[in-house]
């Protein structure tokens, strides 16, 4: 029967397994993904992620490494690869049943690929991609954003040595929001074994900026939660000791730079109505976005 095979007397469906790569980097001040434009049906002319089918003598990591070198055109690039998710719904490929295992790759300043149809494209401009690749790419971006909260992966987007301002720019680009420079500097330099001071500094005409390199830990402690509005149906995030409040030595300002005073005014008015201390954040309006020693660490899924 077409599309089926016989194994030990049982008919089983033939299913192809592919590996698709979400390769992200920061180029020209934007978060960019490596994609290629399909020249044939299905989805002719649409952007697609680099991928390939697994061989009978390969495991998944070997296939991902081969696709990175042969299809993506980055054979020697120092790309951090990790398995992202598996996609197996029946109609994802109109040609045949295909199960895709996606891998996420992150690296700084990746070069132009040596494959002619591959190119770096800002993720903000990628819509209507082939197959389910837009969903896969969005899942990869969300994984990268989440991992910046509780791992030191943000430094993977930087060169071997970097300034805190360069690291902050990475967080702003990946998270898609401006951050307060002084709060960010305090949090990343106080995080345990995240940054190592090289003892050197660079200057572009102003005050010299210290150079750092990535430390020897993979876990960001305390975690650094990205600023975001809490949806009405979401519960307030709390620490084991109750609602998270500002510490006495911390300024009463959000980690993110607000575009207007509306959010802060709303939070302050609400805090006054319920008689809270002037140092307590109104977590019903804003999620906690500061580094907290007792904050719950998000789960990597």
Task: Output the keywords.
301 residues, Nucleoside Triphosphate Pyrophosphohydrolase, Arc Repressor Mutant, subunit A, two-stranded antiparallel ribbon, 5 helices, 21% helix
Q: How would you portray this structure in words?
A:
The protein is an alpha+beta fold. Among the domains are: 15-148, Nucleoside Triphosphate Pyrophosphohydrolase (Alpha-Beta Complex); 151-214, Orthogonal Bundle (Arc Repressor Mutant, subunit A). Helices cover 21% and strands 24% of the residues. It is built from 5 helices and 13 strands. The strands form 4 sheets. Strands 3, 4, 5, 6, 7, 8 and 9 form a 7-stranded mixed sheet that branches. The chain has a two-stranded antiparallel sheet with strand order 1-2. It has a two-stranded antiparallel sheet with strand order 10-11. A hairpin with a 2-residue loop joins strand 3 and strand 4 (30-37). The longest helix is centred in the middle third of the chain and has 18 residues, at 133-150. The radius of gyration is 23 Å and the shape is elongated. 28% of the residues are buried. Mean pLDDT is 79; it is low at 238-254 and 258-301.
């Amino acid at each position: 029967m077409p599309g089926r095979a016989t194994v030990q007397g049982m008919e089983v469906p033939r299913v192809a397994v592919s590996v698709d790569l979400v390769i992200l980097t920061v180029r020209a001040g934007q978060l960019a993904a490596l994609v290629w434009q399909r020249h044939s049906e299905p989805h002719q002319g649409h952007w697609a992620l680099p991928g390939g089918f697994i061989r009978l003598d390969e495991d998944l990591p070997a296939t991902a490494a081969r696709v990175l070198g042969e299809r993506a055109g980055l054979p020697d690039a120092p790309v951090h690869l990790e398995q992202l998710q598996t996609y197996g719904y029946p109609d994802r490929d109109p040609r045949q049943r295909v199960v895709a295992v996606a891998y996420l790759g992150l690296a700084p300043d990746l070069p132009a690929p040596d494959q002619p149809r591959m190119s770096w494209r800002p993720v903000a401009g990628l819509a209507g991609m082939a197959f389910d690749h837009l969903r896969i790419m969005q899942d990869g971006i969300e994984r990268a954003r989440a991992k910046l909260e509780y791992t030191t992966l943000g430094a993977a987007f930087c060169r071997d040595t970097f300034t805190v301002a360069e690291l902050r720019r990475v967080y702003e680009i990946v998270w898609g929001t401006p951050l307060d420079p002084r709060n960010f500097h305090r949090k990343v330099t106080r995080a345990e074994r995240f940054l190592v001071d090289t003892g050197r500094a660079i200057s572009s005409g102003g005050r010299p900026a210290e150079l750092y390199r990535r430390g020897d830990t993979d876990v960001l402690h305390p975690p650094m939660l990205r600023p975001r509005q809490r949806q009405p149906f979401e519960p307030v995030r709390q620490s084991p000791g109750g609602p998270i409040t500002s510490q006495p030595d911390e300024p009463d300002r959000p980690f993110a730079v607000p575009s207007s005073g509306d959010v802060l005014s709303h939070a302050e008015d609400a805090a006054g109505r319920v008689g809270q201390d002037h140092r307590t954040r109104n977590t019903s309006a804003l999620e906690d976005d500061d580094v907290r020693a007792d904050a719950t660490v998000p789960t990597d899924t």
